[in-house]
């Protein structure tokens, strides 16, 4: 357990935070040593954002805010929901590890941070996809380097015993491919942390 400014963070909560950071969350610098965690989801996934914030009651207070913005490519207005945590030195250290040069990066030390199943589940809910046709799972990493993709691959295999392969999706960046043999293992992990609005990513009856 870690303590920062009186804030107690359990190992499972820490893994959840790392899953959020690897996924859609942003660790925003608020000073030389401090940072805060910013969560955003499309408006119809607000339930998922609330679920994540409730995992960290010592960091998140209040209610999420519903906002609108213009999509940079389609130029269409869409709604989203945002909630930001309190700022502190603990998240400041997380930022230094995952944003060493101001840009998010998968660190070489990832296996030491992402240990609990909840971290993998959140990462998958954010960036994963299940393809019904081939009954396989994919976890999209985006435009990371080949080295970062290999770190993700090794961490997932070591810490969660999930066989996987790194695929280069060219313009879409890298993705982790999980063969059919790992399907039930992944379903088991996700089923431990059910979020109804994200259920479409868990093929329980297929």
Descriptive terms for the model:
globular, 206 residues, 2 domains, Endonuclease I-creI, alpha+beta, 7 helices, 4-stranded antiparallel sheet
Q: What does this entry look like structurally?
A:
- With 206 residues, this protein is of the alpha+beta class.
- The protein has 2 domains: 2-108, Roll (Endonuclease I-creI), CATH 3.10.28; 112-199, Roll (Endonuclease I-creI).
- 34% of the residues lie in helices and 25% in strands.
- It is built from 7 helices and 10 strands.
- It has helices spanning 11-22, 46-54, 89-98, 110-113, 117-127, 146-160, 183-191; strands at residues 2-4, 7-9, 26-29, 35-42, 65-70, 77-84, 128-131, 136-142, 165-168, 174-178.
- A hairpin with a 6-residue loop joins strand 5 (65-70) and strand 6.
- The model has no long low-confidence stretch (mean pLDDT 91).
């Amino acid at each position: 357990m870690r303590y920062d400014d009186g804030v107690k963070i359990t190992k499972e909560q820490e893994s959840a935070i790392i899953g959020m950071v690897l996924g859609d969350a942003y660790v925003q610098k608020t000073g030389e040593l401090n940072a805060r965690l910013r969560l955003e989801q499309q408006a119809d996934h607000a339930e998922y954002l609330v679920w994540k914030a409730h995992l960290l009651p010592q960091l998140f207070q209040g209610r999420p805010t519903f906002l609108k913005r213009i999509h940079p490519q389609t130029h269409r207005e869409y709604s989203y929901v945002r909630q930001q945590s309190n700022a502190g030195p603990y998240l400041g250290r997380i930022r230094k590890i995952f944003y060493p040069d101001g840009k998010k990066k998968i660190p070489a030390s990832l296996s030491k941070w992402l240990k609990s199943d909840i971290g993998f589940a959140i990462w998958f809910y954010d960036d994963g996809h299940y393809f019904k046709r081939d009954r396989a799972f994919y976890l999209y990493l985006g435009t990371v380097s080949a080295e970062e993709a290999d770190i993700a691959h090794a961490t997932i295999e070591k810490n969660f015993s999930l066989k996987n392969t790194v695929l280069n999706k060219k313009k879409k960046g890298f993705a982790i491919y999980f063969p059919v043999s790992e399907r039930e293992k992944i379903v088991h992990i996700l089923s431990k942390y059910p979020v109804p609005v994200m259920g479409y990513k868990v093929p329980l009856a297929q």
